[in-house]
Design goal:
It is a single chain. 10% of the residues lie in helices and 42% in strands. With 67 residues, it is mainly beta. The chain has one domain. Pfam families: DUF951 (PF06107). It comes from Paucilactobacillus nenjiangensis.
Length: 67
């Protein structure tokens, strides 16, 4: 599954040529940021799940919050 801060690959690359996106907001809509050019796109959760190919990197847990 995917979570906030994960880097994902979509089925089609962005016009800038990059195919890595970071999830920067989650809710009913999901906002993703292109790691190539910085462009931000907002998709409905349904559209995001249809276009998602795979999760490339999971967000690394913050060491400060591990009590």
């Amino acid at each position: 599954m995917y979570d906030l801060g994960d880097v994902v690959m979509m089925k089609k690359p962005h016009p800038c040529g990059a195919n890595e996106w970071e999830i920067i907001r989650m809710g009913a809509d999901i906002k993703i940021k292109c790691l190539g050019c910085g462009h931000i796109v907002m998709l409905s959760r349904r559209d995001f799940e249809k276009r998602l190919k795979k999760v490339l990197k999971k967000k690394e847990p913050d060491e400060a919050t591990n009590d």
